[in-house]
């Protein structure tokens, strides 16, 4: 029973009475609510708090007092109801006290016996507890020792890694010590030493890594030139193969044979070769960046790398002051190319170590410097070959870096701006070569002794006059100057195309055509005209120059086709008449100038031969029986000129030469009669001139037939260009010269004669008393009918004028 009373469950049950509702007469509703809450054991705190918050605690206190009085009344009623039961309980409690005394005695006896037995056990227990404490201490010591051993072992490994320059495992080991062991080290001295040594070792590792990285910086800079040269070399190889393939394709297309498959195959193989060969080691950079990342200072290392590489770039952008640029440009550009190929690899493989914006900033600096250097150097260069070499390498440089994503348009634009400068140099160089070729020309028809020479000097420039291969030794109608100039022009075209290729404009044929016209008009034509205007030029020279111009004019079509071929333009597109060169028209004009020069030389020589004012006796008393001696020389000279012209000049030029010479002879005869130095002449002089003119007319008819010109120019024979002299001589020899005033007769027989000239000449026609109009036997002074007619003509001409 005692156990039941002391049981916690019993107490709990008694402590929490059943919920009930208290209802008594006279209680207010609030009292009932409050009594119910207290009776049920609910919390009245909120009511109290609410009363005080409302500032009316007195009603609540009054209600609580009512509840207290009511509870006291309930207790009193309860005690009265259970009084007898309470007496019984007290009696039972007294019995319990007796039993408790007996139990206490038994417990004391049992306790004594227990203490006797437990004393020995307590001694053993203390010994056991002491043993347990020692064991715990030993276990703890072993655990601590193991930790220290592990830490010291890691420290030893770290030292070995550092000594072997294996910095990554050394840092990982230190990180392991810091993260997993440092807080667990039980020995304060050891812990303090390790804590002090870790920053020292990290600093040492950082210095060593930076030292190795600096060595790599030096190495990669020294390797940049080789990297750039290798990359540019691959680009050049690919370009060459593309050009060879396109050339084979072009030839195949001309022969209606396809060649596209070979093109694609060749390019794919080349790309694979480049990717497999272009290698360089970035491991030191990766290692250094990774170690600095482990050290927690990646930004510092990135800044260190960027600043050092920027300094290297500034140094690389300085051109050599000890070498001419034409000797150092490849090294200069290859170094820069290698630099940015390395930077591209770093951006793509170093995992955000270097940003694209940083590389773009460096590239913008480099490209501005390169453009400035190129523009300055191009302005000072005086050799088109040097400028072309630099341009070719610059385009290879640009193509190479474009493959790595760099914007190279400013460099290509700089090359395009130097286009005129290059062509000025090329034009001047070609001018000197053309001047030399023309100056060294012997103006002799070219002798070609073998087929290979014919192909290289004639066929290669489309200068052949027939599609049939001639017999050798072959005498070409042009001199050696023509193929020499053609080779110079061809080389000029090649140089022009080479410079414009891989430039800003992919279609540049019209530009090449413009520069081709420029050299043909401003250089070749100008040199030829200067040669023509030279006073020392001879007939053979003038004739050969005229012939040469004809073939140069013909070669213009070859030049245009060759330029189109080099530009990748179909030949049919330049075969249209409107697509021709302007120089062709200019050369045709120059050819006419050459013909005029030739005629001037021929006419000058004819004037030397004839010189009628001095070589003719204008007042001779003897009737001439033959021709003047100088006429034979004139005929021989004309024969030589016409024969040579027939071999060299085309038929139209031959015709012009014959017509010009004969017309000049006619004009010379008329001019002789008009010469102020000749005051008078007689019929004998006219008769002598008539004999000379007949010889010239006979020569004219013969050459007109023998040269085949009669079949081409049927209405304009050579004789027709002697008509003015013939009509004048006929008039002076006529028995009725006054018929000149008859319009019908004049139109039929004297239509080329001018009134004033005839009047002047007739005034000089004065036969002496012993002249031909008188009787040679009797030498009388009787006027003849012819003299009367002449006098009448003079009078009528005087009246007419």
TrEMBL record:
Classification via Gene3D superfamilies: Dsl1p vesicle tethering complex, Tip20p subunit, domain D, Exocyst complex subunit Sec15 C-terminal domain, N-terminal subdomain
Residue ranges annotated for the Exocyst complex component EXOC6/Sec15 N-terminal domain, each copy included: 63-232
Gene Ontology terms: biological process: acceptance of pollen; Golgi to plasma membrane transport; intracellular protein transport; pollen germination; pollen tube growth; vesicle tethering involved in exocytosis
InterPro entries to which the protein is assigned, alphabetical: EXOC6/Sec15 (IPR007225), EXOC6/Sec15_C (IPR046361), EXOC6/Sec15_C_dom1 (IPR042045), EXOC6_Sec15_N (IPR048359), EXOC6PINT-1/Sec15/Tip20_C_dom2 (IPR042044)
A Pfam family: Sec15_C
Keyword Transport: yes
Chain coiled-coil ranges: none
GO-annotated cellular components: cytosol; exocyst; membrane
Exocyst complex subunit EXOC6/Sec15 C-terminal domain boundaries: 413-764
Keyword set, alphabetical order: Coiled coil, Cytoplasm, Exocytosis, Transport
Localization of this protein: Cytoplasm, Cytosol
Primary subcellular site in the record, as a coarse category: cytoplasm
Annotated family: Belongs to the SEC15 family.
Function statement: Component of the exocyst complex involved in the docking of exocytic vesicles with fusion sites on the plasma membrane during regulated or polarized secretion. Involved in polarized cell growth and organ morphogenesis. During cytokinesis, involved in cell plate initiation, cell plate maturation and formation of new primary cell wall.
PANTHER family documented for this protein: EXOCYST COMPLEX COMPONENT 6 (PTHR12702:SF0), SEC15 (PTHR12702)
Name this protein carries in UniProt: Exocyst complex component
Organism of origin: Thlaspi arvense (Field penny-cress)
């Amino acid at each position: 029973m005692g156990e039941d009373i002391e049981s916690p469950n019993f107490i709990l049950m008694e402590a929490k009475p059943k919920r009930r509702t208290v209802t008594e007469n006279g209680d207010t509703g609030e009292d009932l609510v409050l009594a119910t809450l207290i009776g049920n054991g609910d919390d009245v705190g909120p009511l109290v708090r609410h009363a005080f918050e409302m500032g009316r605690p007195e009603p609540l206190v009054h209600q609580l007092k009512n509840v207290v009085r009511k509870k006291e009344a309930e207790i009193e009623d309860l005690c009265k109801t259970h009084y007898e039961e309470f007496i019984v309980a007290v009696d039972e409690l007294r019995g319990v006290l007796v039993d408790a005394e007996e139990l206490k005695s038994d417990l004391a006896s049992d306790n004594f016996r227990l203490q006797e037995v437990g004393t020995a056990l307590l001694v053993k227990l203390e010994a056991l507890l002491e043993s347990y404490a020692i064991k715990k201490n030993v276990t703890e010591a072993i655990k601590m020792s193991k930790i220290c051993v592990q830490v010291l072992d890691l420290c030893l490994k770290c030292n070995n890694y550092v000594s072997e320059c294996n910095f990554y495992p050394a840092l990982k080991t230190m990180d392991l010590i810091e993260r997993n062991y440092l807080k667990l080290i039980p020995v304060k001295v050891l812990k303090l030493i390790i804590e002090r040594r870790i920053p020292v070792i990290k600093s040492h590792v950082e210095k060593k890594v930076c030292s190795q990285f600096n060595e790599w910086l030096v190495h990669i800079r020294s390797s940049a030139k080789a990297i750039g040269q290798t990359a540019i070399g691959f680009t050049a190889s690919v370009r060459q193969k593309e050009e060879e393939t396109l050339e084979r394709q072009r030839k195949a297309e001309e022969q209606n044979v396809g060649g596209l498959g070979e093109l694609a195959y060749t390019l794919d193989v080349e790309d694979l070769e480049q990717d497999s060969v272009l290698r360089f080691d970035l491991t030191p950079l990766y290692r250094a960046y990774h170690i600095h990342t482990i050290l927690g200072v990646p930004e510092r290392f990135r800044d260190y790398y960027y600043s050092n590489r920027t300094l290297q770039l500034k140094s690389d952008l300085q051109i050599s002051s000890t070498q001419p640029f034409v000797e150092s440009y490849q090294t200069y550009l290859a170094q820069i190319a290698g630099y940015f190929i390395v930077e591209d690899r770093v951006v793509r493989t170093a995992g955000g170590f270097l940003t694209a914006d940083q590389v773009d900033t460096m590239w913008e600096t480099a490209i501005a410097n390169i453009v400035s250097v190129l523009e300055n150097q191009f302005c000072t260069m005086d050799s088109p070959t040097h400028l072309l070499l630099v341009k070719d390498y610059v385009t290879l440089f640009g193509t190479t870096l474009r493959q790595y994503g760099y914007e190279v348009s400013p460099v290509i634009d700089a090359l395009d701006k130097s286009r005129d400068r290059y062509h000025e140099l090329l034009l001047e160089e070609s001018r000197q070569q053309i001047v030399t070729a023309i100056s060294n020309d012997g103006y002799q028809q070219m002798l070609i002794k073998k087929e290979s020479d014919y192909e290289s000097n004639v066929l290669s420039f489309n200068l052949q006059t027939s599609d049939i291969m001639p017999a050798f030794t072959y005498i070409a109608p042009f001199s050696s100057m023509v193929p020499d100039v053609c080779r110079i022009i061809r080389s000029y075209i090649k140089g022009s195309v080479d410079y414009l290729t891989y430039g800003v404009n992919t279609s540049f044929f019209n530009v090449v055509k413009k520069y081709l016209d420029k050299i043909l008009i401003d250089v070749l034509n100008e040199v030829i005209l200067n040669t023509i205007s030279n006073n020392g030029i001879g007939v053979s020279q003038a004739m050969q120059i005229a012939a040469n111009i004809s073939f140069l004019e013909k070669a213009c079509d070859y030049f245009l086709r060759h330029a189109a071929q080099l530009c990748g333009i179909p030949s049919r597109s330049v075969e249209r008449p409107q697509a021709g060169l302007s120089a062709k028209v200019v050369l045709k004009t120059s050819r006419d100038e050459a013909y005029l020069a030739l005629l001037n030389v021929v006419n000058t020589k004819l004037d030397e031969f004839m010189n009628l004012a001095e070589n003719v006796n204008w007042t001779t008393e003897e009737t001439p029986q033959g021709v003047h001696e100088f006429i034979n020389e004139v005929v021989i000279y004309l024969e030589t000129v016409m024969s040579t012209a027939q071999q060299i000049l085309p038929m139209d030029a031959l015709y012009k030469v014959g017509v010009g010479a004969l017309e000049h002879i006619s004009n010379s005869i008329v001019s002789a009669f008009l010469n102020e130095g000749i005051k008078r002449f007689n019929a004998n002089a006219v008769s002598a001139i008539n004999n000379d003119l007949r010889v010239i007319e006979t020569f004219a008819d013969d050459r007109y037939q023998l040269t085949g010109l009669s079949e081409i120019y049927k209405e304009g024979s050579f004789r027709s260009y002697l008509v003015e002299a013939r009509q004048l001589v006929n008039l002076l020899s006529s028995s009725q010269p006054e018929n000149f005033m008859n319009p019908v007769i004049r139109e039929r027989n004297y239509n080329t004669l001018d009134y004033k000239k005839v009047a002047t000449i007739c005034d000089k026609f004065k036969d002496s008393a012993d002249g031909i109009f008188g009787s040679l036997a009797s030498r009388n002074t009787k006027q003849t009918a012819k003299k009367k007619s002449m006098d009448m003509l003079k009078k009528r001409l005087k009246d007419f004028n």
